[in-house]
């Protein structure tokens, strides 16, 4: 009986199971099934330390997204340009997990540098959805989500710049937590868009996500943007009755598929049964959030990725290949990027360079910054009136692999419900709610005020218990032997 696929960390502890025994079974399964799902880019043969430490995560094994560094790990961000890279130092997040007794099984597949919504922009090829082959596990933290949903890890670390923890959690029917910007140190997270990047958690339950956050959160002298805000798992007895949820219908109603709208209304009915108040919370400023996000994320990516020029990073390609004229340095840069970067990353660098160029900056970058301010202010204002926002994580369930590759704008639109919380730096929790007509998972997203993770955990727990999604027999954790 593969109890290790089905139990949450909290349940395993309660049932007196040995976490390391479960982790050992997962490590073995990860070798076989990890390949079928393409969930890992690297499995650490030395995942089992000479002695397992003490702490809240003692013996529990996790997957770590390939852009979150561990000392000596091949953190290539699923990019050919970093194919020979070994991280010289580890991230604060991994150090904290290990100090809490957590074990890292390996690195999880992702969209190259975190750019994408389906894990198809990976030099390793796409991740398969454990619910159904041929469908996306979501992106960009798709490997992390697939590993957790298939029972190959107790939990996983991902990164969320515009939705990359929440969307994969949605596609794979698990819990995804994007903390408040700065609540978890970004030291050792390879940068995509620094003003948006957040390390997040993919987990089997809301309580498991809370437990991991309590280990990760808190100030870090190595990250100047980290907040002096530790996190304690809220008391399970705290009531939610009387709290108010705001629904930004103007954003979601016209865009969500009928199956998503039905599932969402069912979830709101469950919330009302729990004694929660559900009110309308219009968010007209969120209508242009995808455009704003894309301009800002591309601008920051173009700057952050300037380092992959063949000097310090990615200098393994033959100079001359793909280059025409220019200085030796220009030829080196052209050769490195032509061979080392995939199509989506190139698109972002071109777009980001364009929106920052003299003559265009005011029209694009400055306007996007101004809009980000307006949206942030509006969301903070709304969250002064309601306790949390609730909306579907995405307008539909997982899509078929290949179906959006020819249409980058459709791919960007996948994030339309997740980018508002990213732009405003607010915490958001995705939890599974039901299945669509195809039998693929759907979810809602709770968005809280700055540092309001405790409230999201309380609300999430109550909804999770009432919805009882984990007991669905179609789920991979029940189906797989
Ligand atoms: N899909 C979005 C993008 O491609 C978000 C990615 C992310 O959150 N890392 O930019």
CATH structural class of the domain at 3-243 and 428-472: Alpha Beta
Alpha-carbon Rg, integer: 21 Å
What is the CATH topology of the domain at 3-243 and 428-472?
Amidase signature (AS) enzymes
Biggest pleated-sheet summary: 11 strands, mixed
Task: Tell me the number of helical segments per DSSP (H or I, 4 or more residues long).
Answer: 17
Summarize the structure.
The chain contains 17 helices and 13 strands. By secondary structure, the protein is α/β, with parallel strands linked by helices.
Could you describe the 3D structure shown?
This protein is of the alpha/beta class. The chain has a domain at 3-243 and 428-472: Amidase signature (AS) domain (Amidase signature (AS) enzymes), CATH 3.90.1300. Helices cover 38% and strands 14% of the residues. The protein has 17 helices and 13 strands. The chain has helices at 3-6, 9-14, 19-37, 92-99, 142-149, 166-172, 206-216, 249-252, 258-273, 289-304, 328-340, 343-356, 362-385, 408-413, 419-424, 453-467, 476-479, and strands at residues 40-43, 61-65, 103-108, 128-129, 132-136, 155-160, 175-178, 198-203, 244-247, 277-280, 388-392, 428-435, 441-447. An eleven-stranded mixed β-sheet has the order 1-3-2-6-8-7-12-13-11-9-10, sandwiched between helices. Helix 4 (92-99) links the parallel strand 2 (61-65) and strand 3 (103-108). It is globular and about 65 Å long. The model has no long low-confidence stretch (mean pLDDT 96). Bound molecules: glutamine. Glutamine is lined by residues 114-117, 140, 159-164, 192, 297, 415.
């Amino acid at each position: 009986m593969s109890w290790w696929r089905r139990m949450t960390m909290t349940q395993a502890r309660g049932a007196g199971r040995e976490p390391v025994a479960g982790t050992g079974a997962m490590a073995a399964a990860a070798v076989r099934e990890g390949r079928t799902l393409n969930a890992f880019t690297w499995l650490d043969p030395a995942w089992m330390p000479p002695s397992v430490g003490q702490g809240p995560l003692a013996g529990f094994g996790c997957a770590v997204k390939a852009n979150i560094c561990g000392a000596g790990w091949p953190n290539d961000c699923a990019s050919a340009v970093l194919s020979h890279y070994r991280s010289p130092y580890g991230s604060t997040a991994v150090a904290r997990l290990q100090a809490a007794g957590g074990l890292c099984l390996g690195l999880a597949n992702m969209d190259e540098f975190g750019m994408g919504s389906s894990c198809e922009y990976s030099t390793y090829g796409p991740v398969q959805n454990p619910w159904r082959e041929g469908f996306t596990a979501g992106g960009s933290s798709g490997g992390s989500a697939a590993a957790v949903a298939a029972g190959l890890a107790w939990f996983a670390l991902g990164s969320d710049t515009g939705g990359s923890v929440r969307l994969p959690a949605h596609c794979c029917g698990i819990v995804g937590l994007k903390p408040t910007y700065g609540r978890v140190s970004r030291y050792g997270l390879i940068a995509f868009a620094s003003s948006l990047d957040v390390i997040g958690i993919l987990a089997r339950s809301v309580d498991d996500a809370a437990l991991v956050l309590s280990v990760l959160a808190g100030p870090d002298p190595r990250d100047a943007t980290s907040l002096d805000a530790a996190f304690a798992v809220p008391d399970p007895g705290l009531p939610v009755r009387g709290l108010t949820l705001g629904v930004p219908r103007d954003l979601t109603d016209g865009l969500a598929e009928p199956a998503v709208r039905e599932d969402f209304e069912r979830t709101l009915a469950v919330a009302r049964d729990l004694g929660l108040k559900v009110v309308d919370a219009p968010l007209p400023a969120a209508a242009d959030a995808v455009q704003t996000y894309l301009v800002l994320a591309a601008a920051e990516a173009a700057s952050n990725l300037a380092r992959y020029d063949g000097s310090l990073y990615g200098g393994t390609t033959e100079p001359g290949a793909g280059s025409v004229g220019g200085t030796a340095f220009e030829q080196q840069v052209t050769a490195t990027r032509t061979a080392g970067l995939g199509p989506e990353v190139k698109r972002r660098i071109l777009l980001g360079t364009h929106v920052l160029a003299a003559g265009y900056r005011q029209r694009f970058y400055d306007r996007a910054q101004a809009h980000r301010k307006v949206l942030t202010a509006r969301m903070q204002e709304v969250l002064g009136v309601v306790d949390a926002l609730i909306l579907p994580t995405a307008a539909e369930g997982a899509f078929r692999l290949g179906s959006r590759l020819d249409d980058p704008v459709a791919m960007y639109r996948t994030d339309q419900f997740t980018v508002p919380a990213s732009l405003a730096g607010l915490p958001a929790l995705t939890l599974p709610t039901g299945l669509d007509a195809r039998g693929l998972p759907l979810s809602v997203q709770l968005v809280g005020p700055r540092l309001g993770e405790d409230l999201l955990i309380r609300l999430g727990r109550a909804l999770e218990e009432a919805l009882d999604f984990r007991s669905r027999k179609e789920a991979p954790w029940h189906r797989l032997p």
